[in-house]
Amino acid sequence: MRIKRSDRGGKDIVDADPSKRMPQQPESTSPSLTVSPAPLSAGLPTESGADASAELPNAIEPHQRVPRWLVRIELFLRVMLRMYIGLAICVVPWWHAAWDQNPIFLRFPALGSIAVTGAARGLVSGLGLLNLWIAFQDAIRHRDG
Questions:
Q1: In this predicted model, what pLDDT tens digit does every residue of 31-57 receive, in sequence order?
Q2: Beta-ladder partners of 3
Q3: Domain coordinates in residue numbering, the chain
Q4: Cβ neighbourhood burial of 9 (10 Å; 0-12, 13-18, 19+)
Q5: Over 90: is that where the pLDDT of 73 sits?
Q6: What is the pLDDT of residues 114-126, one digit of tens each?
Q7: Which of 5, 35, 98, 119 is most buried (most C-beta within 10 Å)?
Q8: Is 134 exposed, middle or buried (0-12, 13-18, 19+ CB in 10 A)?
Q9: Distances in whole angstroms, Cα of residue 107 to Cα of each of 88, 93, 110, 117, 132
Q10: Which 3-state string (H, E, C) describes the chain?
Q11: Which residues make Cβ contacts (< 8 Å) with residue 100, sequence separation at least 6?
Q12: What is the rounded distance in angstroms from the CA atom of residue 142 to the CA atom of residue 56?
């Protein structure tokens, strides 16, 4: 270990000996690592002598297409969920039983006094309208696709 003194009167710089590294620390300049586009186990025999690629038939399969009906169902469910959440978020701030009598707002009166203002209700309803807009845009954009 070598200690270098700084010229500008700052902190001392300590150089550690690279041969005395912690065993958990990976060696960044390891000569045994090579870059290859082929998998590491390709072509190497296993303990039984068989080729490693025969053991892993699913490792290098081509990408399979998702069935069109599954994509349509996923789109339908995604749009319906977004519409449901958007409608709920639009309506809840104006519903007395759900908003004014909310246990969270009753427990924290300062938060409740802010939540009953028209601006806070309008902001939350605006988020619901934004969610509805995203749902409709998703449905229109993927209608033909």
A1: 555 555 555 555 555 555 555 555 555
A2: 14
A3: 68-141
A4: exposed
A5: yes
A6: 999 999 999 999 9
A7: 98
A8: middle
A9: 23, 17, 9, 17, 31
A10: CEEECCCCCCCCEEECCCCCCCCCCCCCCCCCCCCCCCCCCCCCECCCCCEHHHHCCCCCCCCCCCCHHHHHHHHHHHHHHHHHHHHHHHHHHHCHHHHCCCHHHHHCHHHHHHHCCHHHHHHHHHHHHHHHHHHHHHHHHCCCC
A11: 116
A12: 37
Residue 10: Cβ-neighbour burial (10 angstroms; 0-12, 13-18, 19+): exposed
| Residue of 118 and 1 predicted with greater confidence | 118
pLDDT of residue 63: 77
Closest C-alpha to 116, from 132, 100, 130: 100
Which two tokens mark 2?
A: 């070598």
